[in-house]
Write a structure and sequence with these properties.
It is built from 1 helix and 13 strands, in the order E-E-E-E-E-E-E-E-E-E-E-E-E-H. By secondary structure, it is mainly beta. It folds into 2 domains: 2-64; 76-181 and 189-196, Immunoglobulins (Immunoglobulin-like, Sandwich). Strands 1, 2, 3, 4 and 5 form a 5-stranded antiparallel β-sheet that branches. Strands 7-13-12-9-10 form a 5-stranded mixed β-sheet, with no helix packed on it. Strand 1 and strand 2 form a beta hairpin. The protein is rod-shaped.
């Protein structure tokens, strides 16, 4: 039996093995970690030969080696609420406990999907809604009637998790649920001044 490990099906550029055991189910293992860099896709090729010199070959679908966390350097979040139009918008404040969180920019090896985890903490660092919650492959999450104290600062965190179970550094967005609308003192809001350049 001949076993090849390579970066393409049928190649042995990583390492070849020869297994002489008559037990074809015995398998074979070897420590290839020094030869495999993060992001390398590895294919196995197995060729079996009989006493007459005939052979058959099978190829694996390939696996990607993941040894590093996803990159969060360019990751960002956007937080919005469907009720924001009711009030003057103050940066970092939302007027209800219904909001939508979007995120993007986490980087990983090509063809390697990422899952995401989300949690909410408060300004003291303690967790408001339990530990990290895996939300799958989505990059948008709508939270309705989330139970958080009003007029207090909260932080929503997002991190990416690769198929090797390695998590990125989290990105954070701070917000305050402001259920009382700002007072109208007859002056233009900072938001209007910025948007309309008044």
């Amino acid at each position: 039996m001949l076993i090849l490990a390579g970066t393409y099906p049928g190649t042995s550029d990583i390492q070849p093995f020869v297994v002489t055991s008559n037990d074809v189910t015995s398998g074979h293992s070897n420590d290839l970690s020094p030869l495999l860099a993060h992001g390398t896709k590895v294919y196995s090729t197995v060729t079996c030969l009989n006493g007459a010199g005939c052979h058959s070959t099978a190829y694996s679908d390939g696996v990607t080696i993941l040894t590093k966390a996803p990159n969060a350097t360019l990751a960002y979040t956007t937080l919005s609420s469907p009720d924001m139009t009711q009030y003057d918008i103050i940066l970092g404040y939302i007027p209800s406990n219904r909001f939508t969180l979007l995120w993007s920019g986490f980087a990983e090896c090509a063809d390697t999907p990422l899952q995401y985890e989300v949690r909410v903490t408060n300004s003291t660092g303690s967790v408001d809604n339990g530990d990290w919650t895996n939300v799958g492959y989505i990059r948008e999450l709508t939270l309705n009637d989330i139970v958080l104290p009003s007029n207090q600062s909260h932080v929503i965190e997002v991190r990416a998790v690769n198929m090797g179970g390695i998590s990125s550094e989290p990105i954070r967005t701070q917000f305050t649920i402001l259920t009382t609308p700002p007072l109208d003192n007859g002056k233009k809001s900072l938001f209007h001044c910025l948007i309309f350049n008044l």
